[in-house]
């Protein structure tokens, strides 16, 4: 009786405290119920949520329904965001440029100085021995060769061009006015001698920016 009066919540033989034992049992039951509810919720969750929970144990999915920030805090955030995007854009640009150069060098597209495959024509009678390949981006399937360029002090120039297209080779004599950026076709022949013999001043026109003749004007007026 004295032992029961001194410690009514303790077992005098085993030393277990009945109140604490009941609390432990309740916590274990609550834990099992919570684990079961979590398992049910996880089974219903999307694959992305399950992957996130697997990578970050204990993480809780969050749904943002609104954003309330101080105006100047948002300004600072946006400025930091803008500066942070600059390196990313530079990296993307560098990767794109490297891929473009590699692709162009491989296929011989304009901008590389490499003559497109199959565009190395033979020489016509009377054609100058030395010619310069013109790398023009406006016509990737046509090879242009500069045979002659003669400039005058009045801001004009005369060019002799060899044009090798899939349809055939033509020789053109061009007159260029660097002041007005106009150009004329003074002769157009399938042979070099035919171009020379049929040369006559043609009407000067101003070609569209970025066209083949616009690039030829830039080449002649450098």
The number of E-state strands comes to 5
Radius of gyration from CA coordinates:
41 Å
Give, in spatial order, the strands making up the sheet with the most strands. 1-2-3-4-5
Coarse morphology: rod-shaped
Characterize the quaternary organization of these chains.
single chain
Secondary structure class reads alpha+beta
Average pLDDT number = 80
Low-confidence stretches: 107-114
Q: Largest sheet, if any? A: 5 strands, antiparallel
Number of domains: 2
What is the string of helix and strand elements? HHHHEEEEEHH
Helix content percent band: 40-55%
Please report the number of helical segments. 6
Distance between the termini: 118 Å
Strand content: 15-25%
What would you note in describing this structure?
The protein is of the alpha+beta class and about 220 residues long. It has six helices and five strands, in the order H-H-H-H-E-E-E-E-E-H-H. The chain has helices spanning about 1-5, 20-45, 45-55, 70-105, 190-195, 210-220; strands at about 130-135, 145-150, 155-165, 170-175, 180-190. A five-stranded antiparallel beta sheet has the order 1-2-3-4-5. It is rod-shaped, with a radius of gyration of 41 Å. The model is unreliable at about 105-115 (pLDDT under 50).
């Amino acid at each position: 009786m004295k032992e029961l009066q001194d410690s009514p919540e303790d077992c005098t033989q085993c030393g277990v405290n009945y109140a604490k034992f009941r609390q432990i049992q309740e916590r274990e039951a609550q834990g099992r119920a919570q684990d079961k509810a979590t398992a049910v919720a996880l089974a219903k969750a999307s694959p992305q949520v399950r992957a996130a929970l697997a990578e970050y144990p204990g993480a809780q999915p969050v749904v943002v329904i609104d954003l309330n920030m101080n105006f100047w805090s948002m300004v600072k955030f946006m400025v930091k965001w803008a500066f942070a995007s600059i390196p990313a854009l530079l990296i993307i640009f560098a990767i794109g440029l490297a891929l473009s150069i590699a692709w162009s060098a491989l296929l011989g597209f304009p901008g590389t100085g490499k003559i497109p495959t199959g565009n190395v024509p033979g020489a016509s009678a009377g054609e100058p021995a030395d010619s310069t390949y013109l790398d023009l981006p406006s016509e990737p399937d046509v090879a242009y060769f500069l045979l002659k360029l003669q400039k005058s002090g009045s801001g004009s120039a005369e060019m002799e061009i060899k044009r090798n297209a899939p349809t055939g080779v033509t020789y053109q004599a061009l007159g260029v006015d660097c002041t007005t950026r106009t150009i004329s076709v003074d002769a157009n022949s399938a042979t070099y001698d035919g171009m020379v013999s049929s040369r006559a001043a043609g009407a000067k026109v101003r070609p569209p920016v970025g066209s083949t003749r616009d690039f030829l004007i830039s080449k002649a007026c450098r």
